[in-house]
Design a protein that fits this description.
Elements lengths: L3 E7 L5 E2 L15 E7 L20 H5 L12 H7 L11 H10 L9 E6 L5 H14 L9 E5 L4 H10 L7 E5 L3 H11 L3 E5 L16 H18 L3 E6 L18 E6 L6 E9 L7 E7 L2 E4 L4 H10 L7 E8 L2 E13 L4 E4 L3 H15 L6 E7 L11 H13 L7 E3 L2 E2 L5 E2 L4 H10 L4 E5 L3 H4 L8 E5 L2 H8 L1
Parallel strand pairs: 4-8, 4-9, 5-6, 5-7, 7-8, 13-17, 15-16, 17-20, 20-21
Antiparallel strand pairs: 1-2, 1-3, 9-10, 10-11, 11-12, 13-14, 14-16, 18-19
Helix pairs in contact: 9-10
The structure holds thymidine-5'-diphosphate and magnesium ion.
The site of magnesium ion has 4 residues, from helix 4.
Amino acid sequence: KGKSKAVWVCSSCGNSNGQWWGSCPSCKMAGTMKRFSVGEAESTDGGAKVSGIKVSENIARTWLGQSSTDAGVPIRLSDVNRAISPTDWRIPLSGLFGAEVGRVLGGGVVPGSLILVGGDPGVGKSTLMLQIAAIMAEGHNTGGPAPVLYVSGEESIEQVGNRADRMKIGTTELFLYSSTDIEDMLAKAQPLSPRALVVDSIQTVYLQGVTGSAGSITQVKECTAALLRFAKKTNIPILLAGHVTKSGDIAGPRALEHIVDVVLYMEGDKSSSHRLLRSVKNRFGTTDELGVFEMSQSGLQAVFNPSEIFMSEEQSDSEFLVGLAVAVVMDGSRAFLIEIQALCVSGSFTRQLNGVHGSKAEMIAAVLMKQAGIKLQQDALFINVLSGAKVSETAGDLAVAAAICSSHLEYPIPKGVAFIGEVGLAGELRTVPRMEKRVNTLVKLGYKKCIVPASDVKFLSTLDLGELQIVGCKNLKDMINKVF
Ligand code: TYD
Ligand code: MG
């Protein structure tokens, strides 16, 4: 019932449009425009229902910017730097966990900033934010305890309280509140004047007077904008959780990345206890930082020697590694590692490919035969990219070739070795974009060796890469000689 209007929203950049486009007019990605209906009777997902505009005398209104009388006046340049708090001042986070989070944030929490913590459901966003809230409330190196407000729209106060007990959070300055109404929570936050505000999560909150149920695209955008205005006006930093689903849920953080100041993504495999925290966007710092944590009963613990992650697995499944090679691929501005598995079986000629484009795999196999003397003519070849990832970038070519060689030669590639590079028809290795970012990710994760095109060695040797050894190769033959 009720009128509903269709909008098309790009799942890559969040740009919305009144009509469908084959490729997004804003970011030019193809096939990303998805249809959404924005209407008055949007309540199918069982979220909080929103009635028409309620006349509210709540002062919160002014922060929400809907009846703001604060038009602002131009400020003389010479007064600006005094009027605005310097953005290089940050609230430091104490302790080992705090230091690791602080590093990802570029040194700490900038007052008045809106920080989005995105990640799959269950990855540990609420735990992370509760820990940050507790550290900020304790304020060990920020002049002692001060209130921090943790608002949950997902869990009851008791649930959050129990979790805090399990995590042995003992501060008296952490305030818990359960609400899904943005106006209500901001009105409660103001008199408390907290050092920071945590909102869990953007999908559960709503703004009165905005159509759509909580979690709908308009609600998500309007609520985020309201929180941003609140943060800027009060100078209170806000941490906001957002679910991302693998399918690129549009009401999820993708659409919000443009609004907020900082975007952190939390990642980790369901089967692993390690969690990565990555800054994807940071108005106040670099986005190359990567934090590594280990989950525990009492919350997340910083991992200071990430190479241990790989060392521990090394003994147990060393045989497994025949035919397995690691590639570094980019997803937007994020570099991440994928594992490519290949299996060559002599006898029957078949091809089974999963996660690699057929023509690409054929080309790499052909180049290996012709240019590197690997006899795959009689082999059945299976390629699989683990955990459902896809290699769509040419940067993954070298790892695909290495995985095939490893299986064919029955020679394992040691753990802690990664491959980056494009393979040309003559077997030559070509450089790929964002080499520095890819290599830095390997350094952070404690990798020991990275095989790259020879032409990149000179540039990479100027960087501080810690223990990571860079091995340049001119072509596939060269790579085989150096690795196998
Ligand atoms: P949670 O923080 O609720 O994830 P999200 O908010 O992203 O959905 O964490 C999921 C579950 O994992 C929860 O039951 C708590 C548990 N957990 C730990 O026990 N220790 C940890 O260090 C983390 C991060 C989570
Ligand atoms: Mg949660």
